[in-house]
Design a protein that fits this description.
Chain lengths: 449, 253
């Protein structure tokens, strides 16, 4: 059953957005793809630990249309929180498909997809048509390709260095049982340089009689987000990208986040996961050109009954490419973390270095983590390492701190913050680091570990 | 006369079921510096961990009285808050936690209140320059990637900032070159005072050239075998521990 997600929905979206016909044709093809493909099979190691049917919009969800979205008002407190800059960044705020703080001339061009596709279709089309996904990924990503609506294109022209960090806040207020399909396409031209922070936020009016933490994992509660983020780095482009996920505690998310790096491009990426009841994210880094390099950091703060399933793919296609990945999760309450990380090195990608580390800190007896490294190496002459750990706070470290008069709870807090610090350090915007430190420390509570 | 600072009375300690200390008694009064010497494996570090309340070190018999109070049931943080400090032989690295944050948390713990930022900076700055430590030290992670000498200096820095009533220094002299040894010794001497008791645990007599103890005791196989003045350390240096076989008679304080 696909409910409201039919060809008619696509025609309505196309009409409303007045998009070029080729774009609508891509939507129709995506819906066909989605319909034809099976749901990921439980035998698939990358999918088996998450109940994928919870990400199926066909199960009682309806599209949250822009017109409806815009009729939902944010409270003054919410608005003030969204529109206040943290420092000297260029701040852009978009709420429910309209600009609250519009883009200003900062070297970065930000426009809606329809406008960008009309003005210069080819680059957009190339990104939207690029595939290279697994069948299972395509099953879910095709939903976004069919129904995407609040779409932004962020472009940095070739040779342009954007000095001030750009912080793009995307907020949505979504009612129970509604689904949204946002998309962000980021392209940085040859030799361009930018620091971009993308914050995703959703607000949801609580349903009567339901506690926030519980709703998202029940089949018929919460809202659904099927998200797509594409980063395209032309030769020698240099990008620092931060994604901060703060979806509402009732949200479920599927995200396909993909970065494609041409020759000599470099990307430092930090993906911070704070929100949502359930999330399944695929972070794919494709090193297509010789000498491309990427550092990928991830941090998950799991709390309540959150289920966080993250898959990363470090996909080396060219020689002399480097990827260095470090994901860390601090898990309290009954939260659960699943990490699967694949390093794939094609035959042509000689003299490649690939590293992967995944560390999980369990802050309660009921938190759980699983970590599964995967290697697929077809080239010779490569350096490849991976490491993983799962465990509670280190007893000897806690003893050392306590021996200095630091009470157990404060010691645990210090150790958790110390565990997170290597990832926070990678956020290329100090005021955001500081805010996250405060925010995460404020959310930590103590259980007799 | 006031009560002794520390009274260890017939202390038996086991680690994972294995007896290590087998009836140790000694007394340290405020204003005194005591040296506890012994060969490897004699139980010196066991005593220091036990004094600090490490959960792996179980007191199976005897008592530890600190300022007249039996501290057996106190957690390590409570002991530190009452004024006990242990300079570790092998300080633990804590990546991600800066020395500045760590020291602030420690002072807050020991004083039971936040220190004003200005006062904190002032206190630390004075001690840093005394110990010849650059200010940038404060932004480094606790013991992370430190040389042996840096670790020991950080221990002394903490001791100076936390201002304990009883300081136990476990092999603080080991692994130090002569310059670092002198700096550390100066740090210890600076803390000597009528209000403070110091227990120096050491394998070698080296440190005692710079910090003259009031009393020296020799620990072998979990028992005290000799007790004397500073000259005992010199005798040990000359003869080694060979002559100090476990004795049947215990030497009290």
């Amino acid at each position: 059953m696909t409910g409201a997600f039919t060809i008619d929905t696509i025609e309505e979206i196309a009409k409303r957005l007045r998009e070029p016909s080729w774009l609508t044709e891509l939507r129709r093809a995506a819906l066909r793809t989605h319909t034809e493909l099976p749901w990921p099979h439980p035998s698939d190691d990358i999918w088996r630990r998450t109940n994928v049917s919870l990400l199926d919009p066909g199960r009682g969800f309806s599209p949250a249309e822009p017109a409806l979205l815009q009729s939902l008002r944010l409270s003054e407190v919410e608005l003030a929180g969204l529109t206040r800059p943290l420092g000297d960044e260029s701040l852009l705020v978009r709420a429910n498909g309209a600009w609250l703080v519009p883009p200003e001339a900062s070297g970065v061009m930000v426009e809606e997809l329809t406008a960008a596709a009309r003005a210069k279709p080819e680059p957009i089309r190339a990104i939207l048509e690029s595939d290279g996904l697994t069948e299972a990924e395509r099953k879910l990503a095709s939903l976004n390709a069919a129904f995407h609506h609040d779409d932004l294109v962020v472009r940095v022209p070739a040779g342009m260095t954007v000095e001030r960090p750009v912080r793009l806040v995307r907020a949505f207020s979504i009612r129970d049982k509604e689904a949204i399909f946002p998309m962000t396409l980021i392209t940085v031209g040859a030799g361009g340089s930018v620091t971009l922070i993308e914050e995703s936020i959703s607000f949801s009016p609580p349903a009567p009689g339901a506690t926030q933490a519980e709703t998202g994992r029940e089949p018929d509660r919460g809202h659904l987000i099927n998200n797509r983020i594409e980063l395209v780095l032309e030769p020698e482009a240099s990008v620092r990208y931060v994604r901060l996920q703060r979806w509402d505690a009732r949200a479920r998310e599927f995200l396909l986040q993909r970065a494609t790096l041409a020759k000599g491009a470099s990307l430092t990426m930090a993906n911070l996961t704070l929100g949502a009841a359930l999330s399944k994210t695929h972070v794919v880094t494709k090193l297509m050109g010789p000498g491309a390099s990427t550092k990928i950091y991830g941090f998950v703060f799991g709390h309540g009954r959150q289920h966080v399933d993250q898959h990363t793919l470090q996909d080396h296609h060219s020689p002399h490419t480097t990827s260095d990945l470090q994901y860390r999760a601090a898990l309290q309450d009954e939260s659960r973390m699943v990490y699967t990380g694949l390093i794939r090195i094609a035959k042509a990608a000689a003299q490649t270095n690939a590293y992967q580390a995944n560390h999980n800190l369990l802050l309660s007896r009921t938190a759980r983590a699983e970590t599964i490294p995967m290697l697929e190496i077809l080239a010779d002459d490569v350096q490849c390492k991976h490491g993983a750990s799962i465990g509670p706070v280190d007893d000897e470290q806690a003893f050392y701190l306590m021996s200095r008069g630091v009470p157990r709870e404060a010691a645990q807090r210090l150790l958790v913050m110390g565990f997170i610090e290597p990832v926070l350090q990678q956020i290329p915007f100090a005021p955001l680091q500081e805010r996250l430190r405060e925010e995460i420390e404020g959310c930590l509570h103590n259980e007799a570990g | 006369m006031s009560q002794p600072l520390l009274v260890i009375d017939n202390l038996h300690v086991a680690v994972e079921g294995k007896p290590i200390l087998k009836g140790l008694s000694l007394t340290v009064s405020a204003g005194e510096v005591h040296a506890l010497m012994g060969p490897n494996g004699s139980g010196k570090s066991t005593l220091s961990f036990c004094l600090m309340g490490h959960p792996k070190y179980a007191v199976t018999a005897g008592r530890i009285l600190y300022q007249g109070e039996d501290i057996a049931a106190l957690s390590p943080d409570k002991r530190a808050q009452r004024g006990i400090f242990l300079a570790f032989q092998y300080p633990t690295a804590i990546p991600g936690v800066t020395i500045a944050n760590f020291l602030r948390a420690a002072i807050r713990g020991v004083r039971g209140a936040d220190v004003p930022v200005k006062e904190f900076r002032q206190t630390v700055k004075t001690q840093l320059s005394t110990l010849g430590i650059p200010d940038t030290f404060m932004n480094r992670y606790v013991n992370d990637g430190f040389s042996g000498g840096e670790k020991k200096r950080l221990e002394i820095l903490q001791m100076a900032v936390l201002n304990p009533a009883l300081a136990v220094l476990d092999e603080t002299d080991s692994g130090l070159d002569i310059d670092a040894l002198k700096t550390v010794a100066a740090g210890i001497n600076a803390l000597r005072g009528p209000q403070r008791g110091i227990l120096l645990i050491t394998h070698y007599q080296r440190l005692l050239n710079y910090v003259t103890p009031d009393r020296v005791r020799v620990l072998v196989d979990g028992r005290l075998v000799r007790s004397g003045g500073p000259e005992l350390a010199l005798e040990l240096e000359a003869k080694g521990y060979e002559g100090f076989k476990p004795a049947s008679e215990l030497v009290g304080a």
